[in-house]
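Field: COMPLEX_INPUT
Field: COMPONENT_COUNT = two
Field: RESIDUE_TOTAL = 201
Field: MODE = joint
Values follow.
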Amino acid sequence: MKYSRYNYSTEKESTIFEFTSIGNKGHVKKLVQYTEMNIEQYYNLGFGDYNEESGEIDDEIITNNGDSLKILATVVSTIYAFTAKYPKAYVYATGSNDVRTRLYRMGITINLEELKDDFYVYGLKINNSFEAFIPGEDYLGFLVKRKNEKIEI
Amino acid sequence: MTIKDINKAKIPVIRINNKLDKFKNTVLFPKKLAMANKMLENVELPKI
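Field: COMPLEX_OUTPUT
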């Protein structure tokens, strides 16, 4: 991939991924989870900090560990790993607030050229319709779907 | 596979982590899931 990313671990079902952000505030564990939505084959991408000591998981925190591009590239990479196991899945992602949604948009934008090789990428517009993702546009959420369900990565 | 190949790969080397099994059948981000379901409730989904 164009941007460096962290290695990560997963469980046997490949729906939960863990990696450690390493930056100016130290080591911060991150969790990514793909959860089935109410629509068949749709999965929500959840992502946040995991405090192993307290057991707390927080998807609203702004960690500012100085490695946001690397984190975003890692989260994007988990989409490849998840859809390698669930190739028919539609992955929907939205931020827990506007700042996080813009962060997701940045993550897609900087990885868009590579993503478009293997995925359809859509943005949910404010008028509640999806369009092919356009960098710089404001979106409420994002949807990706693997183009070739038989692809081996 | 060389180190260079691994660095270029879209998926890094993935380790199986049995510690994550404790989260199985648990929705870790319930607010986010509820929000996502609500957002897509009345939306025309893209036809792919």
